[in-house]
Amino acid sequence: MLTKKTRETAARGDQWVFMAKDSLLDLPKKSEEGALFTRLRNPSTGEGALFLFSSHAQQLFEIKAFNEDYHSWFIGQSVQHDGRFFFATPMDSLFLLLYYLMKAEKEQGKFQPVDQVVVDEEFPSSSILLQCTQAMRSLHHVTTEKEIGNKKFYKYSKEKTLKWLKKKVEQTVKALKNSNICVGGAVHSATFIRSKQVSDVTEEGYTRYAHGLVSEYIPEDLSADLSKYLGLAELPGPAAQPPVKKRKLSDVPVEAAEDYTKSNTTELKSKKPNSKMTAAQKSLAKVDKSGMKNISSFFSPKSTSKK
User: Fold this and answer.
1) Residue 112: DSSP 8-state
2) Could you tell me the maximum CA-CA distance found in the chain, to the nearest angstrom?
3) Contacts 24+ apart (CB under 8 A), 131-138
4) CA dihedral for 92, 93, 94, 96, sign (positive or negative)
5) CB atoms < 10 A from the CB of 75, how many?
């Protein structure tokens, strides 16, 4: 459990530098309440990822880590070698529920109670998703519901899900504009011109960027369907590059290329006098060299005259 006491503990090798809201670190009224680090499935890949669940707030937080090479922390009188900086951001738990709903649709394709859908032997902590009240109230955005005997049954709806995801993209676009965040090709100058409104970013550019952000929380195939649903044209693939001509290598080893005073003399000697000349060599051959000195003469030792 994460409490205020955690921040006061003596420096140990397994502690982290973590930033979160003060409300997450407040001591709960009940001992069983608090903030819990747990591993759940990443809704995009299905792989395990670290999350923070606040039971008293009934809210799920995504854990992100900022990492730099050769970085550490000074904590008290000790050095924390793990230089990562962790921070928690609230996220919509419905994305994680959506993963299980889509999985149940592929495997069974029938209406089920949500507590039977969110069952994961590999990640047993996934049951805490049922405690996220806001996500549970939003199930109708991604499912078709049926109520039998005061009990609700759910079935994944692709049509409803795409409508819900479209709203997510639109909300993200609005947030990007309000925050004056540069997107598209303008991100290169965002470091230098942060507050200046970029005029060359189209509405499609914002939508495409927001689609990419939302796609980090949904499977790849659903991301592709969402792109079509948003009317985003497929981006052209990278232009085919002309084949690179391979340099013809001689059988004699060439010495270090950095040493320009040496050359592959064996290869030069093996060339025949009547070999074809390049255009540059032909032009050089036509130059009148009378009165010119060979370049090597400038580097030869000067002759000294005897007195």
Assistant:
1) B
2) 126
3) 131/53, 131/55, 131/58, 132/58, 132/59, 132/60, 132/93, 133/58, 134/58, 134/59, 134/92, 134/93, 135/60, 135/92, 135/93, 135/94, 135/96, 135/97, 138/92, 138/94
4) positive
5) 14
Strand pairing report for 85-90 and 151-156? unpaired
pTM over 0.85: no
Q: What is the dihedral of CA 225, 226, 231, 237, to 10 degrees?
A: -70
At 275 the pLDDT is 52
Predicted local distance difference test score (pLDDT) of residue 184: 62
Q: Which helix (H) or strand (E) holds 65?
A: strand 59-66
Pairing of strands 85-90, 59-66: antiparallel
Mind listing the domains of the chain with CATH numbers? 1-91 (2.20.25.530), 92-156 (no CATH), 159-229 (no CATH)
Share in percent of the chain as helix, strand, coil (round to 5) = 35, 15, 45
- Neighbour-count burial of 3, counting CB atoms closer than 10 A to its CB (0-12 exposed, 13-18 middle, 19+ buried): middle
Q: What is the mean pLDDT of each run of 10 residues along the chain (307 residues)?
A: 42 62 60 75 93 83 77 74 78 96 94 94 94 93 93 96 97 91 56 48 89 95 96 70 46 38 44 54 57 51 52
Distance CA 120, CA 74 (A): 40
**How many CB atoms are closer than 10 A to CB 217?**
21
Strands 59-66 and 48-54, how do they pair? antiparallel
Q: Answer whether 276's CB lies under 8 Å from 285's CB.
A: no
Q: What's 258-293 look like in SS3?
A: CCCCCCCHHHHHCCCCCCCCCHHHHHHHCCCCCCCC
The answer to whether 169 and 227 have CB atoms below 8 angstroms apart is: no
